# Entry
Amino acid sequence: MRQYISEGRAIYEDENHGLFSKRLAEWAIDNMKVKDTATGELKAVKSRTLEDVKAVLKAEGVEMPEAFDYTAWYLFNMAVADYRGSLPDDSRRAMYVKETISDPDGCPEAVLECFVAKMCLKGVPIHWEKMI
# Structure
């Protein structure tokens, strides 16, 4: 049973097929925070550019269709922000991106759905019309 979604989200889904668009990835990455270990304050993540992430993935032998670029960009930066202990370097982050997107019994669209669920639970609205 499909839940009700807004017209903006429906248009987004039609255009992006359950993956991150450039605008949504930029917005998500720009709003990522990390806890400063010294002060305990939340601070903006020093994000990686799309070009930088693509270069890291290529250097690590990770290849995927261009349609996944923005989802991979989001995932890589999320790994920088949220998994600093278990994914402390670019090599491990690249493998995380590869394994998440190419999970044989998963689906790459789950990345977007998890992000949407987190935003809903935090009470942060996504203005879908702006993300198209």
User: Anything to note?
Assistant: Helices lie at 7-16, 22-30, 50-59, 69-82, 90-101, 109-122, 128-131. The chain has one domain: 7-131.
